[in-house]
Amino acid sequence: MSPPQPPRLDVGLPRVSADPIAEAFTSRVPLMPWQDKRPVPHAEMADTWRRLCDLSPSAGKRLAYVHVPFCANHCLFCGFYRNRYRHEESARYVQALIDEVRRDADMQCVGQAPIHALYLGGGTPTALETDDLVRLIEALRAELPLAADCELTLEGRILHFDDDKVDACLDVGVNRISIGIQSFDTRVRQQQGRRASGPEAERFIGDLIARDRAAVVIDLMYGLPDQDMSVWSRDLETALSLGPDGLDAYCLALFPGTPLHQAVTKGKVRPPATLAEQGRMYALACMRLAVAGWRQVSNSHWASGTRERNLYNLLIKSGAETLAFGSGAGGSLGRYSYTVDTDLQGYLQAQRENRKAIAGMLISDEQQTLRDWVAGQLETARLDVAALLRRWPDLVAKRTALEALLDSWQKAGLTERQDDVVTLTTAGRFWSTNLIAGFKEKFASLKGVSSTADVP
Question: Are 224 and 216 in contact (CB under 8 A)?
Answer without folding.
Answer: no
